[in-house]
Amino acid sequence: MELIDQVKACYEEIQAVRHQLHRCPELGHREVETTRRIRTFLEGCGGVEILDYGFSTGLAARIRGGHPGKLLALREDIDALPILENTGLPFASQVPGLCHACGHDVHTAALLGCAKLLAQRREALHGDVLLIFQRGEETFDGAASMLKDGLFRDGTPHGVVGFHCAPDLPLGSIALRAGISNASCDSIRLEVTGQGGHGAHPELCVDPVVLSAGLLMELQTLVSRSNSPTDPVVLTFGEIHGGTAPNIIPHTVTLRGTLRTLDNRVRRQHLEAIRRLSPGFCQAFGGRCETTVEVEVPPLVNAPEVCRLLWASAEAVLGPGRVETGRPPSMGSDDFSCLLEACGGQGAQFQLGTALEGLPQSALGLHVPENIFPDEALIPGMAVLTRFTLDYLSP
To answer: Residues 6 or more apart from 340 whose CB is under 8 A from it?
Structure first.
């Protein structure tokens, strides 16, 4: 039976798994039920060895090929977002305030389908497959934490491949970029300390709210005046916490944000500038600032040789003209880059089209509560992952 026919034959089963995952979303590092469902499915496949590495959540498994050869890792993420779903789907999230608005349920289900197909063809594999169901991608630290917990303890893969849903790309196609594909992402915490007091007597205080407001504006000058316009940088602070009442000047204010760049040199320069500028600015007004980089995710750089094979494998199952290669790098980030870096840069992540013609809701975007990721995306997702693995681990 041709591979695409096998993919279509198991579609309904994988579709049902996807619906189960979508109904029961879980946040990063809390994916207990999701991990249990993944384990149960893999145990029923036959030929898939669950690797009991003691992960709190997330899972790794191995398919041993019939012949010696390389070790290829396939990775997909499993966590959801703190967003209230508004899709109207019959299998919509049943957990208030949480949903799979980034398509990770599609990622997980497609990798499970791929595992089933590869287990059926394991005797033809010249090498082994490491299946990685990664926790905590949305918290930026899932890949790093699983590596720390021994994900590669039985050997570092020769390469790692995965995909991410793309609502701005037509269903049945993929996008693939050799070289720099996605930005780095460093999560920054600023603790601004002043001297609290009564709101009627600011002259007796050092107001950390005003300090924080000024500091936010000052930090943006790093992007507009200290950075070369040819080096993309995005600095965004999405959290500000401080104060308990409108007439009380608080003692501290906490700010949390992200720095994104496409180049590690630029990244290091800006992190150092933030560490230098923040305390100095606050000190000039009688306050203090403690700067902490909480999570560090490097840029995602796809290996050209892996991209070439991925392109050929995708065209073999999707048809000619279905691989887009001209997209610019994205300032979005994915900690797939941590696994890629741990594999010596040998690997690639591609974008899987999920915009279904005639369904406008499927093209709204990632992290949008109304966006629908159609079930039909499971077929090209499974097909490309499986075909690439068979090609990569061929004689």
So the answer is: 160, 300, 301, 302, 346, 347, 348, 349
pLDDT confidence bin for 1, thresholds 50/70/90: confident
User: From the CA atom positions of the chain, what is the Rg in Å?
Assistant: 23
Q: How many residues does the chain have?
A: 395
CB 289 within 8 A of CB 253: no
127 is written with which tokens? Answer: 């090498």
Rounded CA separation 17/6 (Å)? 17
pLDDT-derived band at 48 (thresholds 50, 70, 90) equals: very high
Confidence of residue 72 (pLDDT cuts 50, 70, 90): very high
Q: What is the pTM of this model?
A: 0.95
The token pair at 377 is 């995306």
Distance from C-alpha of 22 to C-alpha of 41, rounded to nearest angstrom: 16
- pLDDT tens across 343-369, in order? 999 999 999 999 999 999 999 999 999
In sequence order, what are the residues at sequence separation of 6 or more whose Cβ sits closer than 8 angstroms to the Cβ of residue 247? 198, 199, 200
Q: Which two tokens stand for residue 324?
A: 């887009």
d(CA 367, CA 201): 43
Q: Which of 89, 95, 88 is nearest to 27 (CA)?
A: 95
